[in-house]
Automatic annotation (TrEMBL):
Compartments (UniProt record): Cell envelope
Signal peptide residues on this chain, from the entry's feature table: 1-25
PANTHER family: D-ALLOSE-BINDING PERIPLASMIC PROTEIN-RELATED (PTHR46847)
Record's keyword annotation contains Signal: yes
Record protein name field: Substrate-binding domain-containing protein
Organism taxonomic ancestry: Bacteria, Bacillati, Actinomycetota, Actinomycetes, Kitasatosporales
Region (Disordered): 29-55
Family note: Belongs to the bacterial solute-binding protein 2 family.
UniProt cross-references to InterPro entries, sorted A to Z: Peripla_BP_I, SBP_2_dom, TAT_signal
Length: 349
């Protein structure tokens, strides 16, 4: 059954006290916390297989023209399939703003209970998200943020600054005892705020290591071809260095080709995002690739969990509040040979 409009507006701004206890990392719980037992909330969080009220979740994302974006779609689909009480209405992704707005309007008109939106452009899609919220449909904003918090019930996404920070600290620790260490950065497009944030985090981390100098930085376009072209130029410009941080594992495939063609192996490489290809190379330990910093596409599965929780008026297990948070930023873990087996199942193609 569809939630009445007034009831849905209640989900936007409060009124979920009937049941705290959702295990976001796994699934949501449907056990209400009606008793006074101190263990009731933790018990509710543990009962993740119980079905609850039916929830129809609309999902609108950009075109899957990149390995990470394709993984976003797959994680959303597979997570929704785990729930007998969830119906997922997913649109064909588009990088055309007008087309994505039309898809969101169509989902609003079909009266889905909750919307998950990864906008092709957060600013341009803000009004469409506001329209959903004004129609009483809670929006889970995935990764690329809208211009105003009024456009979403909850934002969940990656930490671009933290991604650069953790890459920088990993490289810094590996080179701590190397006098005159030289580092190169292969970034994403400079017109993207996420690139600026990743570089800032990287620079802030390296500032803790006075023996390290970043001797070159060039921007690629998150594609294999651009990664190969730009990396070829960097290798010619910098005859010797100790470490390379590449912002994106897709463009890193091209960077690897350039490195192989140049026959260079005096440095180690740290990737970005967490592709399966890179994780397998880290596991094999027979190339310059020694680590990658995650920007986990599993956030799409978490967005489905959050949408289900909102639709069923639940909270999150482990938190005292009856509501889901309004902002969840994921951690950018560093994957190395020591922990790659743990993260390998999350690697994307």
């Amino acid at each position: 059954m569809k939630t009445p409009a007034l009831g849905r507006r209640g989900l936007l701004f409060g009124g979920a006290a009937a049941g705290a206890g959702v295990l976001l990392a796994g699934c949501t719980s449907n056990e209400s916390n009606d008793g006074d037992d101190d263990g009731a909330q933790s018990q509710a969080a543990a009962n993740t297989d119980e079905e609850g009220p039916a929830v129809t979740i609309g999902f609108a994302g950009p075109q899957a023209d990149h390995g990470w974006l394709n993984a976003i779609n797959e994680h959303a689909r597979s997570r929704a399939e785990e729930y007998a009480d969830v119906t997922l209405e997913i649109t064909e992704g588009s990088n055309d703003t007008a087309q994505q707005i039309g898809q969101i309007e169509s989902l609003i008109n079909s009266q889905v209970d909750v919307l998950v939106i990864l906008p092709a452009d957060g600013r341009s899609l803000t009004q469409a998200a506001l329209s959903a919220m004004n129609a009483g449909i809670p929006v889970i904003n995935l990764d690329r943020v809208f211009d105003t918090p009024q456009a979403y019930r909850c934002w969940v996404g990656g930490d671009n600054y933290g991604m650069g920070l953790n890459a920088g600290h990993y490289i810094g620790e590996q080179l701590r005892d190397v006098e005159g260490a030289r580092v190169v950065e292969l970034s994403g497009p400079d017109n993207l705020e996420l690139t600026v944030q990743r570089t800032q985090g990287f620079d802030d981390a390296l500032a803790n290591y006075p023996n390290i100098e970043k001797v070159a930085r060039q921007a690629a376009d998150f594609t294999v071809e651009s990664g190969q072209d730009v990396m070829s130029g960097l290798l010619q410009a910098v005859p010797e260095f100790h470490a390379l941080w590449n912002h994106d594992d897709d463009q890193g495939v091209g960077a690897e080709r350039a490195i192989d063609q140049a026959g260079r192996d005096e440095f180690f490489m740290v990737g970005g995002a967490g592709s399966r290809h890179v994780m397998e190379a880290i596991q094999a330990d027979n190339t310059v690739l020694k680590a990658t910093v995650l920007y986990p596409p599993t956030m799409a599965a978490s967005a489905i969990d959050l949408a289900r929780a909102v639709g069923q008026a639940k909270g999150i297990g482990g938190l005292a509040e009856f509501e889901i948070p309004s902002f969840i930023q994921l951690y950018s873990a560093v994957v190395t040979k020591d922990n790659v087996e743990q993260y390998l199942p999350t690697g994307f193609n």
